[in-house]
Amino acid sequence: MNLIQLVIMIGIISVASIVGYIVINSTLFGYAIDESLKKSALIKDKVESLQKSMTNANINDDKGVNIDTMFQFKRAPEFQKIEDNINTKSNMPVTIASLKGDVVLVNFWTYSCINVLRTLPHLEDWDTKYADSGLVIVGIHTPEFEFEKNTENVKSALQRYGIKYPVLQDNVYGTWNAYENSYWPRMYLVDAQGYIRYDKIGESDYDRTEKVIQFLLNERNANKSIKNINHNNNTYPYFDNSKVIQNATNNTVANFLRQPVDFSKIQTPELYFGNQSSRSAIGNPEGFHLGQTIDYFLPSSYTSSSMSNSSTKPNTIYLEGKWKNNPDNVELQSNTGHILLDYSAKSVNIVVGVNSSDKNESQVTVYENNSLISNKSKGIDIGINSKFIANEPRLYNIVNHGSYSDDSHILLIEIHGKGLQAYVFTFG
């Protein structure tokens, strides 16, 4: 072998070595990437599994999520565009940042919604049981109706329902939108590090929600690295609870709201008087005409002493009197008026208000099935002679039967006093 051949041979060997090195390292690099992706997927699966387990009723493990995987959870957005702070220290703002170290239950609600109101006894129980252990409930009051934007109306509702925890008024839906919310009620549980760990839409599942609260409090109290653990200096000046309303039968609002509800037996859906929903539920031939005052008439067969459903549809509202058709309500323009409804449910609520410019109040009498509503069936807001006074905008419980029935009921509401605004019927 001459010198030239030797140089060529060495060159061939060198090139082969370089190619081999590249192939081997490329293989190893690809293997490393593949393993990394597998590991990431495994972590993601474990975290998603944990997230699912957090919404499972069988939460019996005090082990929290490792902080290295916290990026898998969404940070709770800050409260935004809040107009008023109620039940807070010196009416000062409450923020997610200031509550770091506590478990925070962010509750979206509005005070005239029956679905929301039925959650309140549970929230108040949790506030009593767990506030000293690090739970802070913050109510985000996002109004459905225009009158719910009024701070004094909200404060009156807090007194009525005995709400002691902070309530932030979200009139322009700033926080609602930040949380990408679309429901009343909705609860988010935020852990001590500021991550959303639980999301509950609607009523029910109270046992499950409480178990998640306990889980997060155990996790919070075991994690000594979290700063600002105790917020003893943030105790709030709660409203006086002595004004919680009771009716003549001594049934409290809270007892009414705690009644079990069987949704499968409620045959009548929510019925809106205005057209802010998909349509108005008014069934009169005169129809609904936004911005106009309509003179409505009931069939001649309908009176407080003689009711028949031969010429009307069930689950449909019928009016009598002159009513102005507003976007979210109908407003009585005559001195007297009637509302008629054929419904099937255990309890009936109506959201009504009065025209604040008139400074009036309306006297309302409730009839059912050809007579004044009986003592055993009257709602908690019904007083003597089956009457109630509509003097503030809120939900009034007018019927509360002892049990569900397959039968429908004919409800007739007689109103004396111009200016009553009817918004919605809801049922239980």
Automatic annotation (TrEMBL):
Which residue ranges traverse the bilayer? 6-33
Q: Which InterPro entries match?
A: AhpC/TSA, Thioredoxin-like_sf, Thioredoxin_10, Thioredoxin_domain, Thioredoxin_ResA/DsbE_sf
Q: Does the keyword Membrane apply?
A: yes
Domain named Thioredoxin: which ranges? Answer: 70-218
What's its top-level EC category? oxidoreductase
Q: Pfam families given for it?
A: AhpC-TSA (PF00578), Thioredoxin_10 (PF17991)
An MF annotation (GO) of this entry: antioxidant activity
Q: What is its EC number?
A: 1.8.-.-
Q: Which keywords appear in this protein's UniProt record, sorted alphabetically?
A: Membrane, Oxidoreductase, Transmembrane, Transmembrane helix
Keyword match Cytoplasm: no
Q: Which domain of life is it from?
A: Archaea
- Any idea what this protein is called? Thiol-disulfide oxidoreductase YkuV
What is the organism field in this record?
Candidatus Nitrosocosmicus oleophilus
